[in-house]
Amino acid sequence: MENCCGLLTSKKEPVPLKSVEVELEVRDHVATVVSTLNYENKEDKPLEAVFVFPMPGDAAVCHFSATIGQTQIVAEVKEKQKAREEYDDALSSGQQAFLLEESDQSPDIFSLSVGSLPPGESASIRLEYVTELAVQADEGLRFVLPAVLNPRYHPQGSEGVQVTSVPASLVPYSLSFSARVSSPRPVSKVESNCPMDPLKYLNTEQSQAMVKLAAGHKFDKDVELLIYYKDAHQPTAVVEAGQTSAKPGTLMGDPVVMLSLYPEFPQAVMSSLASCGEFVFLLDRSGSMGVPLNNNEGSQTRIGSARDTLLLLLKSIPMGCYFNIYSFGSSYEHIFPKSVEYSEKTMEEALKKVEGMEDDLGGTEILEALKHIYSQACIPNQPRQLLVFTDGEVGNTKEVINLVKKNSGSHRCFSFGIGEGASSALINGLAKEGGGYAQFITGIDRMQPKVMQSLRFALQPAVVDISVKWDLPKRVSVTVLSPPITTLFQGQRSLIYAQLTGQSPKAAEGSVTVKYSLAGHPSQNKLHFSLKPAEDSGLTVHRLAARTLIRSLEMSTKAVERRFKDPWCAEMFQHSVKAKPELPRRDPLLQLVSLQRASGRWELDPAVAAALGKTSEEVENTQPSEVNKEVWATILALIWLHGFKMDAQEEWELLAMKAVSWLRAQNAPHVTQCVEAGNTLLGCKVQKDALGI
């Protein structure tokens, strides 16, 4: 398989890239990225070259320039077809010309036609874009600079831009990377998967900081930054002044406000999660899922981690729900012909099938699997929740996202990008258009906590009747630029962009109120903010607001069906027959979880005793008299979870709730005595109240 990445000639042959310099500026929740790409033509003839590079799918390109020798070219935004015609005319007349355009298949791949590059000449490309930063489960803001996107699988009969990753020894260029972070709140820490110089604070309030990539990085993997602020979940508003040269009353001439809202749902509603729903799990089984989750020695494979995650999910589904599991590659499979009711029998049958799932289905064609899922009739009074696990390497991203959008009225879609190189356009697009939530699992991340957080979101009742009300001074009017909010989850950020027109008095304030209904309970959250624009804020918020407006207009336009003539590639992965490796000893937590029954109980048998680190005799001999064996085993399991696995509580919290519900239904006697005996046996000091029984 050829390496089709970086700067390429029209024959897809690489042009040497010398260096990449990246400057990142983060202001609260948004980032400005300035990349400078330096390369040269070492051939003895002029080259027409194309540079293929990735960026976030929701980014807004705001500057592009190219310098060849003493000549500098600055890009102008033009209608796509007209720009292509002018580019062709310039080339045919022997002029230097550059053309930057977004891939039709995936919005996170841009291709740059740099045109005629003379022999021996060096060129420098400067690209600037702005993007919103995604909030992670632990409230960190995630920025990723992709090295080169991993191989994108193109369905048979399609063509498109192909980009691949390359080993470190073959990376022909170096990278320098620096980041400056500022926020109304203090910056508590910045973490990275790559060696970084120590974090340097720029003021006493610690609200401004700077960090640099350590010298010697070869850009052989994604550079990931996680930025943490104090009180990150508090709602904020950033008002940005308009461009002084632009006309008042226009988008660029007026101030723009960006609201970051974090709804807090009433505790009474949140304590009663839904006990119904149809859960459809869609698992990527393409060849790329067989690689390790990270670069650490002995790291679990992506497919192995996904299998463990499905175990936790299947144990955590409430009784009375329905479920099914699909897997896809070049083709797709499903465990049941249609979703089945969750029971001991169906759970065990599904788990046996999951244990045998490998990365053996070839390429990554997710579209047909989704079409089959959507062709199944929804089950009355069982809201459909779709959870998609993929390393995000598909070539027809826009077509997939449009299909999810078309069916958004009948389900919610939760997506998980696994491993470095997962397409942010695909993962974020699935969740955004499907009314769900997106998660990325990279570096040393464990998949399970993030997936279980999304399951909790999926169990939250859907928020309906969402409305946004603005309260502003008399002479100020508001034009909302963001599409209407259609989904809200506890603690999930929602960004709203709006244009403020008119003169506001000094020290004026405004407010915005978000009203909604949750499980029949009307609720609202209100945020007050100053209308005074922030000083020296540039135009980052304006550019993202414009991008949001353009994207919403694009999505409202009917998609044009495309037909492709020649197959770009038939199969990206070849598999040799290999002996199944010996399975490592299962994690003690997963071992105990695997023995839980669908109802939430555990049974007293040697396997459960072993998972608790005891012999059958030790467990049986300490059992209080007049106590049911299953009650005793279930209480022991709960004590063990609380006593030894509190650091992984997010992973077992839902299945423990099932166990507690089962215990309460038994109305068992001597529960206090059982807890005391269990603590003595296991060497713990867990209080009965902490167990919830």
The low-confidence runs, each spanning 5 or more residues with pLDDT under 50, are 149-154, 158-169, 557-584
- The assigned structural class equals alpha+beta
| Lateral arrangement of strands in the main beta sheet | 6-5-9-3-2-12-15-14
The total of helices stands at 16
Q: How much of the residues is beta strand, in percent?
A: 25-35%
Give the distance, in angstroms, between the N- and C-terminal Cα atoms. Answer: 58 Å
**Gross geometry:** globular
- What percentage of residues falls in helices of 4 or more residues? 10-25%
Our Rg estimate from Cα atoms comes to: 27 Å
Determine the mean pLDDT: 81
Query: What is the β-strand count?
Result: 30
Main beta sheet: 8 strands, mixed
Pfam family, one: VWA_3
Protein name: von Willebrand factor A domain containing 5A
Domain VWFA: 278-455
Domain VIT: 1-131
Q: Outline of this structure?
A:
This protein is of the alpha+beta class and 693 residues long. The protein has 16 helices and 30 strands.
Layout of helices and strands:
Elements: E1 6-9, E2 17-27, E3 30-40, E4 47-54, E5 60-68, E6 71-74, H1 80-92, E7 99-102, E8 109-117, E9 122-132, E10 134-135, E11 141-145, E12 174-182, E13 187-192, E14 200-201, E15 208-212, E16 223-229, E17 236-240, E18 256-261, H2 267-270, E19 278-284, H3 302-316, E20 322-328, E21 332-334, E22 340-341, H4 344-355, H5 367-375, E23 384-390, H6 397-406, E24 411-418, H7 424-433, E25 438-441, H8 447-459, E26 463-471, E27 477-480, E28 494-501, E29 509-518, E30 521-530, H9 540-556, H10 588-594, H11 606-611, H12 616-621, H13 629-644, H14 649-666, H15 671-682, H16 688-691
Parallel strand pairs: 2-12, 19-20, 19-23, 23-24, 24-25
Antiparallel strand pairs: 1-4, 2-3, 3-9, 4-8, 5-6, 5-9, 7-8, 10-11, 11-16, 12-15, 13-16, 14-15, 17-18, 18-28, 20-21, 20-22, 26-29, 27-28, 29-30
Helix pairs in contact: 3-4, 3-8, 6-7, 8-14, 13-14, 13-15
